[in-house]
Amino acid sequence: MKKNLFIVFTFICLITNFAFASNTEISKAYKKHQSDVQVQGVGKVVKLLRDDLKGSKHQRFILKLPSKLTILIAHNIDLSKRINDIKVGDSVEFYGEYEWNKKGGVVHWTHHDPSRRHIGGWLKHNGRTYQ
Q1: In the beta sheet, which residues pair with residue 67?
Q2: Which of 58, 75, 77, 127 lies 20 to 30 angstroms, CA to CA, from 114?
Q3: CATH classification of 2-130, choosing from 2.40.40.20, 2.40.50.140, 3.20.20.70, 1.10.340.30?
Q4: Are 126 and 90 in contact, with CB atoms under 8 Å apart?
Q5: Which residues, 6 or more positions from 11, have their beta carbon under 8 angstroms from its beta carbon?
Q6: Structure pTM?
């Protein structure tokens, strides 16, 4: 019993540290107006936006991070599958490139790069990875 409680406690600490570390990295980039920063984190969907269909098609939604900062996720659906069952309140993990803006920033390159010029990113939603 004690061993199980220890494992659960350790797992919770690891998740909390992960969320804090990733939020710290994004918060630093936001405060310093930095762009082209690889970030990883998790947030809750607070708004679903219409797809951007100009040029490369992008699925767009806004995540609220545990730090209360909001970021736009711009996920290229020409290069990766779209998340069809996403809804407000869902949790989404992400790994991609952060670009600063006044509203909190944008995370893009959440997919593979066929040209291999960018680090491949991903989104995770409901146990499924999109890259």
Answers
A1: none
A2: 127
A3: 2.40.50.140
A4: yes
A5: none
A6: 0.80
